[in-house]
Design goal:
The chain has helices spanning 9-14, 26-29, 68-74, 90-97, 103-106, 123-129, 180-193, 217-223, 256-283, 317-320, 355-362, 439-455, 468-477, and strands at 43-49, 78-84, 133-138, 161-163, 168-169, 176-177, 200-206, 290-296, 301-302, 308-310, 324-327, 344-351, 388-394, 400-405, 409-414, 420-423. By secondary structure, it is an alpha/beta fold. The chain has a single domain (9-477), classed as Alkaline Phosphatase, subunit A (3-Layer(aba) Sandwich). The strands form 4 sheets. An 8-stranded mixed beta sheet has the order 4-3-7-1-8-11-2-12, sandwiched between helices. Strands 13-14-15-16 form a 4-stranded antiparallel beta sheet, with helices on one face. A two-stranded antiparallel sheet has the order 5-6. Bound molecules: zinc ion. Residues 50-51, 90, 140, 297-298 line the site of zinc ion (ZN).
């Protein structure tokens, strides 16, 4: 693609991934023209964490020590400050991340109850077909391997090893998961036995910050602070509007500060095991041969917009803004521009659709025609006012919400409601709707969304045939509702 300047509006918005190869890593690795040619990545490693807000991490400015290991890793990575998920739900978010395609095109728009159509090709399939060994170790029950007779495909498609072994049951519902230690153990077990020769693609998905927040006791104690007098009703549904959702309830605890502290402790629990994984990759001399990308599938509301300890309820920033760290082979150049804390940062507006092209560019592989994202190898070259449909969600009772943004402005709307506009730079909490003051911005983003809709390709979606047991499990998770509710 003749990427820059992007001429047509549709291209400006949703440019197809470029065919940039490893040479395009120059700006990321070297940050200046005099640097030697960057090293091609032999392997690709994607590490994701469920329900992890960027602003609760040290690298993103959080004052508590939730993420010393991740912060240390970030010093060798490029840190993206304006990165967004495609949706606030696990299934569509991870499906887009692992295919490079928006949820609308792959049949996972409504939430967690759909699986991708059979014609969708995943990153793992493409890499496997190119001779890569492929392995995934995932710990959220929603992305466990589908039964052989299921319609559609799951995220296991293309992985030679798909370790979704989960024996831990959540406290309040029929949902299985695996803790961070078990996740790292599974990844290390594969690394110990992987084929010595050849290239590989490894995906590791941690679950820990997902509720209910039950960190190890020592971390719960470390992060506990005296709570304020704020109290909430203990919910009897899975919704988080003005209450503690049923699935999050910790016995009779009704003080939201206690939950917030426990959320922080859960992040540190994940962080310790993230650090163990990175250390082992380093010890095996794999880190500097790999492109490593870290992100979260979505965020979490901790009381913003009256939503407590939940996601998948709206597309406000706290549910869709995610951390995104890209570590090229050998790490970001020591000569790269860094902030006062030592991080190389980018304020480019990016989303999960950029991850697949980024991995392929680093691996020196041609991009895929269906991809809409751009390689993040050289973020300074990304279009400045890049408009992205950051997310959408089909809520219960057939209420949907969409958002589109350009890095500064975010426009959110539901059917039959007036759109809301936020200046995210001035108002990161999205508290002040300025749509009435900025009609031109509203019109521009509405036009951009219409262009996006027109640009969507064939819908490859197909609904998974969910058996009774799975249906009950999903209902218990709060992801589907029966006729009774
Ligand atoms: Zn999730």
């Amino acid at each position: 693609m003749d990427a820059r300047p992007l001429r047509s509006p549709a291209r400006r918005l949703f440019a197809r991934a470029t065919r940039l190869g490893a040479a395009a890593l120059a700006c990321l690795v070297a940050a200046c023209a005099e640097q030697p040619e960057p090293k091609r990545a032999t392997h690709a490693i994607l590490i994701t964490c469920d329900t992890l807000r960027a602003d609760r991490l040290g690298v993103y400015g959080y004052e508590r020590a939730t993420s010393p290991e991740l912060d240390a890793f970030a010093r060798d990575a490029l840190v993206f400050d304006r990165a967004y998920s495609c949706a606030p739900w696990t299934q569509p978010a991870l499906s887009s991340l692992l295919t490079g395609r928006p949820p609308e095109e792959i049949g996972v728009t409504p939430g967690n109850t759909k699986r991708m159509g059979k014609s969708v090709e995943t990153l793992a399939e493409t890499l496997r077909d190119k001779g890569f060994a492929t392995a995934a170790c995932v710990s959220n029950g929603l992305v466990r391997k589908l039964p052989p007779n299921a319609a559609g495909i799951g995220l296991e498609q293309g992985f030679e090893l798909y370790d979704s072994e989960m024996t831990m049951r959540e406290k309040n519902r029929v949902a299985f998961e695996r803790d961070a230690r078990g996740t790292t153990d599974a990844a290390l077990a594969w690394l110990a036995t992987r084929p010595r020769d050849g290239r590989f693609f490894l995906w590791v998905h941690f679950q820990d910050p997902h509720g209910p927040y039950l960190p190890p006791p020592e971390l719960a104690a470390e992060f506990a602070r005296p709570p304020t007098d704020e109290k909430l009703p203990l919910g009897t549904t899975q919704r988080g509007l003005g209450q503690i959702p049923q699935y999050q309830r910790l016995d009779g605890e009704n003080r939201p500060d206690v939950y917030r502290d426990r959320y922080d402790a859960e992040i540190r629990c994940f962080d310790r095991e993230f650090g163990r994984l990175i250390a082992e990759l380093g010890a095996r001399e794999l880190l500097d041969d790999s492109i490593v990308v870290f992100t979260a599938d979505h965020g979490e509301s901790l009381g913003e917009h009256d939503q407590y300890f939940c996601h998948g309820e709206n597309v406000q920033r706290e549910q869709v803004h995610v951390p995104l760290l890209v570590r090229p082979p050998g790490g970001v150049s020591k000569r790269a521009d860094r902030d006062e804390r030592g991080y190389a940062r980018s304020s480019a507006h990016v989303n999960h659709l950029d991850v697949a092209p980024t991995l392929f560019a680093a691996l020196d592989l041609p991009s895929i025609a269906d991809w809409r994202g751009l390689p993040l190898s050289d973020p300074t070259a990304l279009p400045r006012d890049r408009a992205l449909v950051q997310c959408f969600v089909a809520l219960r009772k057939n209420v949907s919400e969409w958002a589109i943004g350009d890095g500064r402005w975010r426009l959110l709307w539901r059917e039959h409601d007036a759109p809301r506009l936020y200046d995210v730079l001035a108002d990161p909490g999205e508290l002040r709707n300025v749509a009435g003051h900025e009609p031109e911005v509203v019109a521009r983003l509405q036009k951009a969304y219409a262009e996006y809709e027109r640009s969507l390709g064939a819908r490859d979606g197909i609904e998974t045939e969910i058996d009774d047991e799975t249906s009950k499990g999903l209902e218990a998770l709060g992801y589907v509702e029966t006729q009774k509710r």
